[in-house]
Amino acid sequence: MTAVAGPGIGERDIAAFRHLHGQVGDAIETAVRGKRPVVDLVLVAMFAGGHVLLEDVPGTGKTTLARAVAGALGGLSRRVQFTPDLLPSDVTGTSVYDPRSGQVNFRPGPVFANVVLADEINRAAAKTQSALLEVMEERTVTVDGVGHTVPEPFLVVATQNPIDLDGTYRLPEAQLDRFMLRTSIGYPEAGFELDVLRPGSSAGRVGQVPTVTSPAVVAQYGRLLSTLHVAEPILRYISDLGIATRENPKLRLGASTRGLRALVRAVQVYAAAQGRHFVVPSDVQRLVGPVLAHRLVLTREALLAGATTEDVVAEVVDRVPVPRPQGQ
C-alpha cells in the first residue's frame, strides 16, 4: 500500500502529535502506573472524538484514570455517580427560575465538561441512560427546545462493575454502540502494585498530574487526524471484518456500520501515535477487539458454550485475509 499523506497533514504534524501523545501518556502514568496500553486506548478515543467504557471491579483505578486524563488535558472534569434515583436533569442540567430577574435560566449539568466520568452507569434507569446517550452522540443538550453545546473535546469515560449485578440495568445495544471502545484496567503487576503501596508514592494522586496540553490543542489534532490517509485495501479489510462478524454463526448481532466507522477513526489516531501518516493492517488488528467486541451479541448457544465476543473477534481476524502491500 502506498504511503500517502492525507490532505492538510504532513510529516511534521505527525511528529508533533506523536510527541504530544507521549507527553500526555507520561503525565497520566504519574498517577496510573503500569497501564500504558489502557492509557493509550483512552487517548485514542479522546483524540478520535469517541467515548470509553471501562468494565472492571472496584478499586482498580477507573476514577483515577479519568481524572488523570483531565489533569493532563488541562480541561474541566466532572464525576457523576449513577444511582437508580438519578434523574436525567441531574446529568444534563435544567431550567431554573430566578425570582430576582424574573427570568428562566439554564443551569448546566455535569456533562458540560471535557472529561465526564459516568461511574457505574448501569445502575441508572433507562431514562437517565438515554439522556446521556443524546449528549454522547449529538454533543448537545436539549432543554425546553433549546440546544446547548458541550465543550470540545468531550470524552465520556463510563464504568460498570461486571461482577456485582444487583440493582443494575443492563446497557442496551444502542447505547453500547455509542462507546468507541471498551477496555478494562485490571490489577497491576506485582512491581507496580508495590510502587502504589509504597508510602509517599505519587500513584493515585491526580492533583500532581502535570498539565501538558489544552482542550483547544486536543480538538485541533482531532480534526487534523480525521484526514489521515486510509488506503482502499485497509478500508476493504475493515469492511470484510465487519461482514465476517455478521455472517458468524456464533453471533446474532454483528458489527454495525457505526462500529466500522469508529474503527476507521480509531486506527487513524493510533497510526499517528506510532509516527505514521498511513494505516497498516496491524493497526486494525490491534484495535478491532476493543472497538467491536462490545457491539456484538452472542447467540444463546454460544453463550452456553462459554464463548465471548472477544473470542469471536479473534476468530474473525484469523480467518479474514490480510491485505498485502502492492507488488507482493
| Widest sheet: strand ordering | 2-5-8-1-9
Determine the structural class based on helices, strands and strand pairing. alpha/beta
Q: How large a portion of the residues is in β-strands, by DSSP E?
A: 5-15%
Portion of residues in helices? 40-55%
- The ordered H/E elements are HHEHEHEEEHEEEHEHHHEHHEHH
Radius of gyration from the CA trace?
21 Å
Instruction: Report the mean per-residue pLDDT as an integer.
Output: 86
Please write out the topology.
Elements: H1 11-29, H2 36-48, E1 52-55, H3 62-73, E2 77-81, H4 88-92, E3 93-98, E4 103-108, E5 115-119, H5 126-138, E6 140-143, E7 146-149, E8 155-160, H6 173-176, E9 181-183, H7 190-197, H8 215-225, H9 232-247, E10 251-253, H10 257-273, H11 281-292, E11 297-298, H12 300-304, H13 309-319
Parallel strand pairs: 1-8, 1-9, 2-5, 5-8
Antiparallel strand pairs: 3-4, 6-7, 10-11
Helix pairs in contact: 1-2, 1-3, 2-10, 9-10, 10-11, 11-13
Could you give a quick summary of the protein structure above?
The protein has 13 helices and eleven strands. The protein is α/β, with parallel strands linked by helices and about 325 residues long. The strands form four sheets. It has a five-stranded parallel beta sheet with strand order 2-5-8-1-9. A two-stranded antiparallel ribbon has the order 3-4.
